[in-house]
Amino acid sequence: MLKPLNMRVNGESTQLLVGEEEILLEVLRNRLMLTGTKQGCGEGQCGHCTIILNGKAVNSCLTLALEAEGGEVLTIEGLAEEGRLHPIQKAYAESGAIQCGYCTPGMIMAIYSLLRENPRPSEDQIREGIKGVMCRCTGYYKVVEAVTRVTAGGSLHG
Amino acid sequence: MDKFSFVRVATVAQAIRLKRDNPQAFFMAGGTDLLILKRNKLIQPQSILYLKGIPGLAEIYPEANGGLRIGACATLDTVASHPLIQQNYPPLARAAFAVASPQIRNKATIGGNICLNSRCWFFNRSPFWRAEYPECRKAAGGTKCYIIPQSLKGCFALQSGDTTGPLVALEAKVRLVSDQGERILGVEDLYLGDGIRYLALKPGEILTEVLLPQPKGEGIFRKFRPQNNLDFAAFNLTLLSPKEGTGSKIVVSSVASKPLRARKAEALLNQGAPGKEVVGQAMKEIPLVSFVRGDVEFKKQVIAAYMTGAIAGSKTPLRE
After folding, report:
1. How many domains does chain B have?
2. Residue B36: which of A44, A56, A57 has the nearest Cβ?
3. Phi-psi bin for A116: left (phi > 0), alpha (psi -120 to 50), beta?
């Protein structure tokens, strides 16, 4: 049965009808056309589907759409403001942390969540923070470098 | 995905009523394991009763007797970062932090970790992968066991929630509610030691709360996995050795269908026996089954080494 789903996605309130068995990732990609969020393994290991739901990073492949009822969703599309890259996105590009790019949206959302909770993470804390996202290209070195570039740069919102 | 109904439950009483009316319904909190089981066609829920919206069920608050209550829907992230848990029950905070990734911990709950379906390297796979082999006893119609291939019956799937070892060691209890009323059960008694019927929950019962007694000292928790990745544990070790009294605990979990206590070794530890003797006794007591990334002998040696280190550490104030 289709049920109404009301949520805010990247700051805009959104109403749509979804199937009770629909996964949030599918709704974001196939219904709202927010294809920045990727599907990888579909079982919570690769983290490419990471989004922020009610302030916390979660695997959108392990979230039923109706769990987001009344909630606030932030995806990679919601980070840049007025055409300006978010500092994490900027640092990511400058560090060459994007290679094939498939993990990048999930990785950036995981980093966003990490830095919101801990603006000055140690290297160990960075590695724990990005543990839920698999990258098969960079060996994570460039990713860690990107995070340190952001934290060294000071303001997260500059 | 196959279709199912999704009900956002408002109260525990409503959850119990809906489950009574439809015994095939599944309770879901974080869903990080349930939705994968569903995807892999290992469960076929017709109806999901979503518990996370129940007011108050995720709260953590201290009790007058010095203990702590943790609502079953508290996320593992909350448990890992809660100041009172970090301060008074460090093995539990560490175990919650050792689960998978931040993304999973933000969603998965302590109640779900306690009730986690038992796992094995064969069962928890996609239908495509499993189709290449004869089905196992935990799956419908299977006759094989891939954990103990020579066994004639039974399922030896591993109880794999990381928080269960510390909860057993800390003598935690759980509150179980059904339409018959409620009861309090020790976490240790919650596990039946069977891979298929792994929990002592009665049909229709729901776990609402974890009750921790007054803290009796610190302790050590170690999760061993061959790689520092999101994996479930090859084993978990929890060691408590209070400075006063006789409350030593040695719990090895994620190696059998229930957390295992080395009771005779605990008695030796209480008497202040040398570490070598305690470890020797513990390894004699703990029945280990096969290990997917190495044989039992290897696993024994690693557990013994971790235990030796933990006991040596416990002679000084107990900190990891």
Report:
1. 2
2. A44
3. alpha
